[in-house]
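We read letters as residues; the integers encode the fold. Take this protein.
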Amino acid sequence: MKSSNPPLFPRTRRGSWWLVLACGICLAFAASCKKSNADGGYPLPVQIDSIAARYLFSDASSYGPDGLIRIHFLYQNGRIIRRQGEEVYISAYNFTNLSLQVFDTVMYAGNHILIQTISREPGYTPSANQRDFTIANGRIQQLATVSDTTTYYYSGNRLSRTERVLGYNVFRKTFSYDGNGNLTQVNSTRFNTWDSSTVALKTENFSGFDAVANPLHGFGLWDDLLYRSLSTNNFSGYEYIQGTAGGRGTMELTYTSDGKIDYGN
């Protein structure tokens, strides 16, 4: 793997229409793209250099890889402009790892946040995975991709439900919190608009919260960080139930010398 960083916005044939769309949106909103509202008021994140992959969730039925593999973030004017380090599968070696040569670029235009995946990993060409987030009042209102749309619903200051529409199916997630504002459960179902049937998919429970402030607010643009971004504090216990199957586990949280949580280790 090459050690040099790829350019922030390299040229690519894949997804070229997306770059044209992004430029068009930027121009359309140029008059209103002042620093104070260039992202719909989405929260300024704590500028974390890296997050260990073991804290990530993949939708989120399992933890990320073990060890100290990390994803990295670059910032400009307090905003994330690149997430570097995505999971890649190299079929020739039957091996999965995080590569710093695969990264997300993040662009801000009016009340839209645009994310696209780009690869400089030899022999690996992922989907461009274009994502268009609509932001209002500092919250994600909608996520549009080339294949589906997800709408976000809130109760007070908390995300209460998401609905992802894909063909005849509506995938719903409902979010529950404790009195401290910590995410304790996510219930996932699938509703079929063709025959009005509902199928329970998964229940996920979170526990073992500490009393330390969670620094991951503002990182909810990525599915594998959404759950962690929603809580006041930081969880160490996770359980999921999926039909007759399930699993649970506990991860050790690490802290800095001044008592802050250290997601980089």
Remarks:
- The longest strand covers residues 95-109.
- Residues 16-249 form a domain with the Lipocalin fold (CATH 2.40.128.720).
- Residues 16-28 form the longest helix (13 residues).
- The two ends are 22 Å apart (CA to CA).
